Amino acid sequence: MKEPSSFSKKCNRLVLFELKQPDCSAELLQEQLISWFKLHCRDLPWRRTYDPYHVWVSEIMLQQTQMDRGVVYFTRWVNRFPDVAAVAAANQQEILKYWEGLGYYSRARNLHKAAKVIVNDFGGEVICDYDLLLQLPGIGPYTAAAIASVAGNQDVPVIDANVARVYARLFDIDTPVKEKKAKGRIEEIARKLLPEGRARLFNQAVMELGGLVCTPRLPKCSLCPVSVSCLALAGATVGDRPVIGKSKKIVTVQRVAGLVFHKGSVLLLQRREDDVWGGLWDFPGGELAEGDPEELLIDIIFESTDLIVDVIEPITKVIHHYTRYKIILYCFLCTLRGNNREAVLTSADDYRWVAPKDFKHFGFPAGPRKVLEYIRLKRQELLRSSL
Ligand code: SF4
To answer: Which of 332, 322, 338, 333 is nearest to 280 (CA)?
Structure first.
């Protein structure tokens, strides 16, 4: 098999120097990682064909998502949208519904936009060229590199959190991995270690090692195929690598929302397109300020919809986390005063009066979804309510 070139000879020198171990070379590391991957890689649906569309969807879905969960969503997604044309032809409401629960909904909206570009400009085929991929909505350097190398086997290094952790340990990098110095170092290592013509296997091998063996907590060094070359293991610094910089402070945000009933239907507002949850549906409400939360909720609903409501009782409090925010949502049962159901919106794109049995057709962010789950488990009578 064609392998060592002037490129990998350069790698050999790099690794010999870095590892200070005479028996270790870039070639050896590459072989150890690739052989291990061939034996131990997980059987994931997109790995069966390396179809660029499948690799693209999986890469977008797996950002901030655990593998098991990602596989469930991926399978459901490709059953409904078997190709890019099906994504492009779907309406945004359905796209968001199939993404519901994964969070970071801009990923779904961008996937939808990119599918339309691919259908209109590239004949419906997902391209595997790194530079062209970067021009598509929602595709940044990481995703472009992953698609180009995993689907197209292009010689492009991929660096995600798993890869950064593996290299930080293997090369015992002692500065915070998210800071410029370590980032540059990791990029250099990833570029120099990449074996020519084997990017698909090599990139996945390093990512898989980070996912299965060189895990954030309690790495399984005794099972690691590159343990003999690992500087952190040799120097007993595994527990201190990667070095994590100062973590961002958690900001707590308190919100109120109303489940406004009228004649068996509930008022839903569609969040504005430029919102982080743009396109998803929510209960009317807003940020909690000083004062009586019930009075505040009545004011917020009036200001945002021109509708007057009465608050009947508290329903539940739910907590969810979004990036560095901890959001506490207090939800109240409300009824519409009078019979005017026509809303005048000031901070939403659309509204609907929806019977609870039809909620399943709407995509909700985490907060209202938790409220609905609470109602389904504890307040079933509200779902049959004719309030
Ligand atoms: Fe990670 Fe341990 Fe392998 Fe080093 S030996 S790369 S710390 S799993």
So the answer is: 322
